[in-house]
Specification:
- The protein has one domain.
- It is 53% helix and 13% strand.
- It contains seven helices and five strands.
- The relative contact order is 0.15.
């Protein structure tokens, strides 16, 4: 993996730590991640053939989706600017869901548990899926980066999705638990921005 990608993931981990310590708001966290992507001039991998590439692409698309969604909030309903930013956000969320599926396929859905999370947002009720990956080999591979990836504790990697297609596949693979649970990232996902 190129140094630029390692730098991005290390910087993201640092920002995540600052967010958890209360030094950054959710908006500042999103903005700083976006600025890191812009500053480093990095793009997503075109071919996702290993776990590190999948995780990088997941974070890349997630950062852009959240950034453009946040930008859309600055414009009135019905405006062209709001519609444009929301379209960009949705496009990046779609790409994030595609890479989520690529990662799950690379793992053959092993050591994966998924469930709906309890959320304050009415829009996300019974839609936000938390995917927890507890694969020791994957976690070891990720930890070979200079710093662990954000959204990852020593024992698991956490992804989120609202995709009906992802949900359908998780159910087909028998890794979706049909119950609502408190998110591992509860304070983050339930904080408005």
């Amino acid at each position: 993996m190129s140094n630029k990608f390692d730098s991005f993931l290390q910087h993201r981990q640092s920002l995540l730590f600052q967010y958890k310590m209360g030094d950054l708001t959710k908006n500042e966290f999103i903005e700083a991640n976006f600025e890191a992507i812009e500053r480093l001039g990095i793009e997503p991998f075109k071919k996702v053939d290993n776990v590190k590439k999948a995780i990088y692409n997941y974070h890349y698309f997630n950062v852009l989706a959240k950034f453009y969604y946040r930008m859309a909030r600055d414009f009135p309903a019905g405006s062209r600017q709001k519609a444009s930013f929301l379209a960009q956000s949705n496009s990046y969320y779609y790409e994030k869901d595609k890479v989520t599926m690529a990662l799950l396929k690379l793992l053959d859905f092993r050591n994966v548990e998924a469930y709906f999370v309890r959320v304050k947002s009415r829009k996300l009720q019974n839609k936000l899926i938390e995917i927890v990956i507890k694969d020791p080999e994957v976690l070891f591979e990720i930890n070979t980066l200079s710093a662990p990836c954000g959204g990852m504790d020593a024992d698991y990697l956490v992804l989120h999705s609202t995709s009906p297609f992802v949900l359908k596949r998780l159910k087909e693979e028998g890794v979706f638990v049909d119950e609502k649970k408190k998110s591992i990232a509860d304070s983050y996902i339930n904080q408005k921005y």
